[in-house]
Fold:
Amino acid sequence: MDLTQRGYCDRILRVNLSTGSIETTALPAEVMPLILGGKGLGAWLLYTEQPADVDPLSPKNLMIFHTGPLTGTTAPTAGRFGLTTKSPATGTYFDAYCGGYWGNMLKYAGYDALVLTGAAKNPVILAIDGAQVEIRPAENLWGTTISAATQQIKAELGHDWQSLVIGPPGEAQRNLAGIFNESRALARGGVGAVMGSKNLKQSPSTATGVCTSTIKGNTSAPFSWPSGRCACRVRSACSARRGRLTSWRLSM
Structure:
């Protein structure tokens, strides 16, 4: 099965903030027909890769940011993305979801998911520019508000970048802290505290390294849908708007 013809990029970006290692791996081909989208992928990765007794605020806790097969398309609500981790507020499995443009940018950059582990010794940002991924120092951003940090990173990197940012509550590892993409938020479960425990202030993303972002007017992307499935998607969306559809499943 060619997953790039099923709405996936077939790449997971993995970053260890403790060691600084950055690598990409393929999606689990044998599992993908059994799950649908980022929610299933995030749950499977956390279940198979993380022991049950990991402290939510320890470096071993995974942060799994994930998109779905429709992310980056014109399907309704397709701009949303998710985060799966172990919550410091509940002490168990947790997933949160967010709108905005960061999820689209991750997909256009060529990744279905971003898996973070470890913890940096000092505050850092993770800059994703397509195939170019860097861990950069961010002491100057630590302690700033979400809006101030977002504005500063756009001033330094450019307005084509989209950022996920924590504020002072996340840095202080408060259980109610969220992660923001401008005015949108991963707002439940204390996920901002998990990001703060890793000394990660921001994760800005753009797509110039793999393809040109749609914000720049180019609709190219490192994944596609066969024309028949695109037509099915459009018909399903229209049926849902007319109240003729309650649930549907994309065939793999």
Q: What stands out?
A: The longest strand covers residues 81-86.
